[in-house]
């Protein structure tokens, strides 16, 4: 029984070596390179303003040279006063613990050196399974033997300074403070370099039992007693003079607490409206193979990997989007109006705004407007963290005639001319789409049309006819190449290869889409056919300061934060599509005529520079959209009820997205040089 209770001296003399050698050998190498989990930091575009952090264990690795000698001396005095004399295992400590434990008939005293404690923490931090965590921390003689052997090996590989540095960055101090940097911040709002002897002794005293000696929740009697013990030990070891120790002991424990932010809901109040963008970053991160093979691994990397992340958001554009989003007071309306702004040629998302408050507190939200949701289900306003703008799992909203951009591009890319004419009737009977008979929104849209006028007036029957000429599946596949994803069973069924050729209603925007997708799809047209994946970051750096990279399937190493672009349609086809898309906005195309009127003819005057785009409404005006772009920016805005798609916004609110996009582009581009669209070639005009 004594042998089981004591820490076995046999570990020092080689007894039990055969039983532990194989278990220890492969782990010692891990300890040389193992680093503890570290907090990831999210910064504003200036790279300096901290927005929030992501962590499970709040920790920032700090070099020993940046840690006050007071801390180094206090932790040695508190935990292992012979640290600089032994070689990983202290024989005197083992013998002392053996005798004490034998007398108490149990485990009353430990013999763990700082090196042994570091080994235990490193094994815990590098564990990949719950079983490995248990093996690293369980109270058994076999585990202690392994720990001792590994401590001896570690001291052959690492210097005392390296071991102490790693220990101080791994130890737990309570209140989610892992490592000395977090402890100094949480308890004293200081860096480790600035801690006084009394503060250092307080923190060193916590390692033994963070809850028992907690100065925050207790009356500080136990915490003060433990601190004073450490100060006395520092004096005995010659780290402090008796007078300095006495002066430090006379001080009350004076805390200056800090609560470090964690995750998007903790974004500073000044930037709280950026919470939706922060949430988009998380969703984007969880989809990146560079950070792991599945969502769980990727989010674990975010919370433990120590990354430095700088957002691609542009403060001026974000301010414009927040200012101009319509139906601004979302507290009294179920209708969400949001806008996303993308940068052509990079895919970087420059702004995301919606008439909602980013908050987890739904207590004051009214019941959902969806009659099938039940009385206890809260609405999405005024507070929500739902990804209403895209980037998450929500399907989005029917985008109406903004989808006409896809058959327009597909037709031009297939060789059709902008001047292609068709006498579009009010009602069109399709023989390809099973006798389907779509109609136009009004009789004024009927008559001879070209791509310019048919796009400017949003003539349904023209674009259904055009789909028949090229094949509806070409528009569907092109939409996918431009970043659209089918998130409902109905959309997936219609988009399937065997059914897409019959999906005539695709051009009318019956599919769900998000403003994030639509802004980036139209940004491709603005970039003359060059599609770039939507991306929320300017840069990502590893904990060692190097850019975060990934390896493509072709074996090429690239930075994760760099734009990922490819040519999807020809530049001339994209230029021709833009020429037609100038018609809806009241702008003047370079090569054709718009037919006298358009669906959003106020946009050109508001933006004050060349602009293209497209309106979109659904049946009964359940949702309304506008997507507009200049050579510099593309913006998509919608208005709909996210809780109940059958709750129609009505004609009165259908103009809101038009104003939101036009005014945002105007304000974001103010004082910037006016850029012109490149005209299409005469060949594609026809």
TrEMBL record:
Annotated InterPro entries: Beta-lactam/transpept-like, Glyco_trans_51, Glycosyltr_51/Transpeptidase, Lysozyme-like_dom_sf, PBP_transglycosylase, PCN-bd_Tpept
- What's the protein called, per UniProt? Membrane carboxypeptidase (Penicillin-binding protein)
- Name the Gene Ontology molecular function terms of this record: penicillin binding; peptidoglycan glycosyltransferase activity; serine-type D-Ala-D-Ala carboxypeptidase activity
Which reactions appear under catalytic activity for this entry? Answer: [GlcNAc-(1->4)-Mur2Ac(oyl-L-Ala-gamma-D-Glu-L-Lys-D-Ala-D-Ala)](n)-di-trans,octa-cis-undecaprenyl diphosphate + beta-D-GlcNAc-(1->4)-Mur2Ac(oyl-L-Ala-gamma-D-Glu-L-Lys-D-Ala-D-Ala)-di-trans,octa-cis-undecaprenyl diphosphate = [GlcNAc-(1->4)-Mur2Ac(oyl-L-Ala-gamma-D-Glu-L-Lys-D-Ala-D-Ala)](n+1)-di-trans,octa-cis-undecaprenyl diphosphate + di-trans,octa-cis-undecaprenyl diphosphate + H(+); Preferential cleavage: (Ac)2-L-Lys-D-Ala-|-D-Ala. Also transpeptidation of peptidyl-alanyl moieties that are N-acyl substituents of D-alanine
**Keywords of this protein's UniProt record, alphabetized?**
Carboxypeptidase, Cell shape, Cell wall biogenesis/degradation, Glycosyltransferase, Hydrolase, Multifunctional enzyme, Peptidoglycan synthesis, Protease, Transferase
Glycosyl transferase family domain location, by residue? 51-234
List the GO biological process terms.
cell wall organization; peptidoglycan biosynthetic process; proteolysis; regulation of cell shape
- Family the UniProt entry places it in: In the N-terminal section; belongs to the glycosyltransferase 51 family.
| Pfam families, per the entry | Transgly (PF00912), Transpeptidase (PF00905)
Q: State the taxonomy lineage.
A: Bacteria, Bacillati, Actinomycetota, Actinomycetes, Micromonosporales
Q: Does the record bear Hydrolase in its keywords?
A: yes
Which organism encodes this protein? Micromonospora rhizosphaerae
Q: Where is the Penicillin-binding protein transpeptidase domain?
A: 339-640
The reply to whether Methyltransferase figures as a keyword in the UniProt entry is: no
* One cellular component term from this protein's GO annotations in UniProt: outer membrane-bounded periplasmic space
């Amino acid at each position: 029984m004594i042998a089981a209770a004591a820490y076995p001296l046999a570990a020092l003399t080689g007894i039990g070596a055969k039983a532990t050698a194989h278990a220890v050998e492969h782990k010692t190498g891990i300890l040389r390179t193992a680093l503890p989990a570290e907090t990831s930091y999210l910064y504003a575009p200036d790279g300096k303003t901290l927005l929030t952090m992501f962590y499970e264990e709040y920790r920032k690795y700090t070099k020993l040279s940046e840690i006050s000698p007071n801390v180094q001396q206090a932790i040695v005095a508190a935990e292992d006063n012979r640290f600089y004399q032994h070689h990983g295992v202290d024989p005197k400590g083992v013998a002392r613990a053996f005798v004490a434990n034998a007398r108490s008939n149990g485990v009353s005293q430990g013999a763990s050196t700082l090196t042994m404690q570091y080994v235990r923490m490193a094994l815990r931090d590098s564990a990949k399974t719950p079983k490995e965590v248990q093996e690293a921390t369980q109270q058994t003689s076999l585990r202690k033997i392994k720990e001792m052997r590994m401590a001896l090996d570690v001291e052959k590989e690492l210097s005392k300074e390296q071991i102490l540095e790693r220990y101080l960055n791994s130890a737990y101090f309570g209140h989610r403070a892992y490592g000395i940097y977090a402890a100094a911040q949480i308890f004293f709002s200081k860096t480790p370099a600035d801690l006084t002897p009394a503060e250092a002794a307080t923190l060193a005293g916590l390692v033994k039992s963070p809850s028992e000696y907690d100065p925050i929740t207790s009356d500080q009697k136990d915490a003060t007693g433990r601190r004073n013990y450490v100060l006395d030990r520092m004096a005995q070891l010659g780290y402090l003079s008796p007078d300095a120790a006495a002066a430090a002991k006379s001080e009350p424990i004076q805390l200056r607490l800090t609560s470090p932010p964690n995750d998007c809901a903790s974004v500073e109040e000044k930037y709280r409206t950026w919470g939706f963008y922060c949430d988009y970053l998380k969703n984007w991160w969880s989809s990146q193979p560079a950070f792991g093979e599945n969502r769980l691994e990727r989010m674990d990397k975010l919370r433990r990997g120590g990354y430095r992340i700088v957002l691609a958001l542009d403060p001026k554009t974000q301010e414009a989007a927040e200012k101009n989003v319509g139906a601004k007071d979302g507290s009294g309306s179920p209708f969400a109006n949001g806008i996303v702004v993308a940068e052509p040629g990079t895919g970087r998302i420059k702004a995301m705004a919606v008439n909602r408050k980013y908050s987890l507190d739904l207590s004051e939200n009214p019941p959902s407007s969806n009659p099938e949701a039940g009385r206890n289900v809260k609405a999405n306003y005024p507070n929500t963290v739902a990804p209403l703008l895209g980037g998450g799992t929500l399907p989005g909203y029917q985008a109406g005639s903004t989808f006409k951009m896809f058959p327009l591009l597909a037709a031009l890319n297939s060789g059709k001319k902008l001047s292609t004419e068709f006498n579009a009737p009010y009602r069109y009977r399709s023989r390809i789409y099973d006798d389907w008979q779509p109609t136009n929104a009004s009789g004024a849209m009927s008559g001879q049309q070209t791509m310019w006028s048919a796009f400017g007036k949003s003539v349904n029957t023209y674009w259904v006819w055009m789909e028949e000429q090229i094949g509806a599946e070409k528009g569907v596949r092109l939409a996918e190449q431009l970043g659209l994803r089918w998130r409902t069973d109905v959309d997936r069924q219609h988009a399937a290869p065997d059914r897409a050729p019959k999906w005539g209603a695709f051009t009318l925007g019956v599919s769900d889409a998000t403003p994030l997708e639509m802004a980036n799809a139209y940004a491709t047209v603005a970039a003359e056919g060059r599609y770039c994946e939507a991306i929320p970051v300017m840069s990502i750096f590893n904990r060692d300061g190097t850019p975060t990279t990934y390896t493509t399937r072709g074996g090429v190493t690239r930075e994760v934060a760099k734009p990922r672009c490819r040519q999807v349609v020809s530049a001339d086809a994209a230029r021709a599509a833009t020429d037609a898309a100038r018609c809806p906005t009241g702008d003047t195309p370079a090569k054709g005529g718009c037919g006298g009127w358009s669906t959003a003819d106020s946009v050109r005057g508001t933006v004050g520079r060349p602009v293209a785009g497209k309106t979109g409404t659904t049946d009964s005006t359940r949702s309304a959209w506008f997507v507009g772009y200049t050579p510099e920016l593309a913006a998509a805005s919608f208005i709909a009820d996210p809780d109940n798609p059958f709750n129609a916004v009505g004609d009165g609110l259908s103009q809101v997205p038009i104003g939101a996009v036009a005014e945002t582009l105007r304000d974001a581009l103010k004082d910037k040089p006016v850029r012109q669209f490149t005209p299409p070639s005469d060949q594609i005009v026809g």
